[in-house]
Amino acid sequence: MAFQLPELPYAFDALEPHIDARTMEIHYGKHHAGYTKKLNAAIEGSDLENMKIEDILASVSQHPTGVRNNGGGFFNHSLFWSIMSPDGGGEPSSRMNIHKAIERDFGGFEAFKDQFAKAAATRFGSGWAWLCVDSDDKLFICSTANQDNPLMDVVDVEGTPILGLDVWEHAYYLNYQNRRPDYINAFFNVVNWDAVTKLYNDANPGASDL
Ligand code: MN3
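# manganese (III) ion complex -> structure
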């Protein structure tokens, strides 16, 4: 099997009350597991079985729709779990490069948060909001539909995603019903800034936190 469902780095109830255990259990165990299984079925017997998921997504325009939808779903959720933590929330500390980059590119944390929350709230229907690094190592915010992401060669603005928020209803409906803005606010209480700054540094060869 080419791709495996990554282990969830915390218990289903670890992000409560911000993200409830039942949502986590279904989201990880049914949705993410489903994307993984369908991705493997879509690439079975093809050269894609030996490629990294990032490389598959970068050339996704050349692959069947099932690879786009399920490859995106596989990657996006893997990233999503990794950038949350029960010990997360607050603002990135000043020793983190991501702190400096947010100051530089958005003028401050609150301005960043407002722009990100707006991107998440205004994505119509199903999709994701992203914080990304562009080819000049600058941060930008965007959103994509369905299971697309900024690594794909089919989106409006390409970049390296380092923070993502799932705004599909399956991500919040059990606990928040139609109150997507409340879910977006709650997400900021569980963001794992250690993980985000590591992804930022990985996207900037040579960079590391103080
Ligand atoms: Mn989802």
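# post-check
The mean pLDDT is 96.
The first strand starts at residue 127 and ends at 133.
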